[in-house]
Automatic annotation (TrEMBL):
Transmembrane segments: 52-74, 95-114
Any GO BP annotation: ATP synthesis coupled electron transport
One Pfam family named in its UniProt record: COX2
Origin species: freshwater metagenome
Protein name: cytochrome-c oxidase
Enzyme class: translocase
Entry's Gene Ontology molecular function annotations: copper ion binding; cytochrome-c oxidase activity; oxidoreductase activity
Localization per Swiss-Prot or TrEMBL: Membrane
């Protein structure tokens, strides 16, 4: 049985690498890569960071795969002839490269993460609405100051509450906790902020698509943590006003 030629080995390696390279660079527009696009103002800000992280991971993966396959393919013939690869105790240039490159990648990702984070937590001089989000063991209390001090929706583990918000309008959320640390998390909106006892956090964002989205506590907070869920319901501006009117009437 004849050994594969250098040309045939290069062809095999190329056929293996080509699909991966095309998957990363073949489209003129990068997809969302599983990221929920256009759902909220937070998604609009962090989408490019998500895409960039995946592209960086893909490039690193392809380079790593090439470095793994190269010796496996091109040194096979030498081993078949009984030629043992030259051994090195260390290689300073290579060690510098594989130390510096990961550092650069992490530094770049850290920089853009910090920039996007500042945009996400930025506060506006004015907002259209305000809602309070208080976490309790083991459910949520959503207050609507526009409808009065008593306009509070309180859930239970067996009856999770619904957080109703208007579409296309910026809302400021005042986030607190009554007992232990909780986490106010809306997965589809790619946002989370901690509910801390004795600390008041503020969060602002705009919901861009009408619909219902699951929410939950993402910090282990006790026995019924898994039942600490809620539904975020995005409605039209008119329906949101009707909801406020209903809360105001029931609190009277």
């Amino acid at each position: 049985m004849s050994l594969p030629t250098r040309k045939s080995r290069a062809l095999r390696l190329g056929l293996l690498i080509a699909p991966i390279t095309l998957a990363l660079t073949g489209c003129s527009e990068v997809s969302g890569l599983g990221f929920p696009e256009g759902v909220s103002s937070v998604n609009d800000i962090s989408l490019s960071l998500w895409q960039g992280a995946w592209i960086a991971a893909g490039v690193v993966g392809v380079i790593t795969l090439i470095l793994i396959l190269w010796p496996a393919v091109f040194h096979r013939a030498k081993e078949s002839k009984g030629e043992f690869p030259k051994q090195f105790q260390y290689n300073i240039p290579v060690e510098v490269v594989y130390t510096v490159i990961p550092f650069i990648i992490i530094a770049v990702l850290f920089y853009f993460t910090a920039v996007k984070q500042e945009e996400i937590v930025a506060k506006s001089p004015t907002v259209a609405h305000e809602i309070t989000v208080n976490a309790i063991q083991w459910s949520w209390q959503f207050g609507y100051p526009e409808a009065g001090e008593k306009a509070v929706v309180t859930g239970t583990p067996s009856k999770p509450p619904t957080l109703v918000v208007p579409v296309g309008e910026r809302v400021r959320y005042t986030i607190t906790a009554s007992d232990v640390v909780h986490g106010f998390w809306i997965p589809a909106f790619m946002i989370q902020m901690q509910n801390l006892p004795g600390v008041t956090n503020k969060l602002e964002f705009t919901a861009n698509k009408i619909g219902e989205y699951p929410g939950r506590c993402n910090i282990l907070c006790g026995r019924n943590h898994a039942q600490m869920i809620f539904t975020l319901k995005v409605v039209s501006k008119a329906d949101y006003q009707k909801y406020l009117d209903t809360l105001k009437a029931s609190a009277a």
